[in-house]
């Protein structure tokens, strides 16, 4: 971290002369570069969609999987299997599924719908990446929420049933407040994980088409290793680090409120 901060104030790390101190020049260039703001806009759209999608889906699955009904163990296994798949393997599998003549388009054509371009269309590529990452991540966050649900005292549900509380009212007034701490953690951890998303983009789209999937981590990688500007890449690391520090601070504040 200290090395990244120092390098962000330098330039020419890969030259024969070695790094030269340039002060805030890298930050001025980065913040004044329209392409960087485009990357932040793409990343923002990505986060706005994927975080609510994953958290709400994980909450829904956790509530179902927490019930003691016949056959629920098989359903739990199906939900948790993607968690064990390495991101690179999952990306390759979904890359095959998204092919123009892949199984997804085969199903669409079988029911009379036109085939979709998915990863080759700038309007669909980001959504395709979101589906892939949600397939990997939802089961992981479901584990945490199930753990939170199992800590809720059963007496609360019994009292609610005696008072005639319906399913929705019980969810809103008992379940969600009781697992607020767990949900706060899941939201923050999911945000951090999504900001650091890299593998699916690197394997499937390389930021395209038309930079529609150029997330901040891929842009950082591209500047550092493809363009060879390690100092600019380290500047992005520092900016990303500051963002994650803010997210962590928000988490602590939420947990402190819960404690109060």
What features would you describe in this structure?
By secondary structure, the protein is mainly α. The chain has a domain at 44-197: MetI-like fold. It is built from 13 helices and two strands. It has helices spanning 2-8, 25-31, 34-65, 72-84, 87-97, 103-110, 125-149, 154-162, 167-178, 180-195, 199-205, 216-226, 230-259; strands at residues 10-11, 20-21. The protein has a two-stranded antiparallel ribbon with strand order 1-2. A hairpin with an 8-residue loop joins strand 1 (10-11) and strand 2. Helix 5 (87-97) packs parallel to helix 11 and helix 12 runs antiparallel to helix 13 (230-259). It is globular and about 75 Å long. 25% of the residues are buried.
Draw up the topology in text.
Blueprint (H helix, E strand, L loop, with lengths): L1 H7 L1 E2 L8 E2 L3 H7 L2 H32 L6 H13 L2 H11 L5 H8 L14 H25 L4 H9 L4 H12 L1 H16 L3 H7 L10 H11 L3 H30 L1
Antiparallel strand pairs: 1-2
Helix pairs in contact: 1-13, 3-7, 3-10, 4-7, 5-11, 7-10, 10-13, 12-13
Shape: globular
**Count of DSSP E strands?**
2
The CATH homologous superfamily of the domain at 44-197 corresponds to MetI-like
Q: Specify Rg, calculated over alpha carbons.
A: 22 Å
Profile the largest sheet.
2 strands, antiparallel
Strand-residue proportion: under 5%
CATH class of the domain at 44-197: Mainly Alpha
The rounded distance between the terminal residues' Cα atoms is 33 Å
What's the architecture of the domain at 44-197 in CATH terms? Answer: Orthogonal Bundle
Number of helices: 13
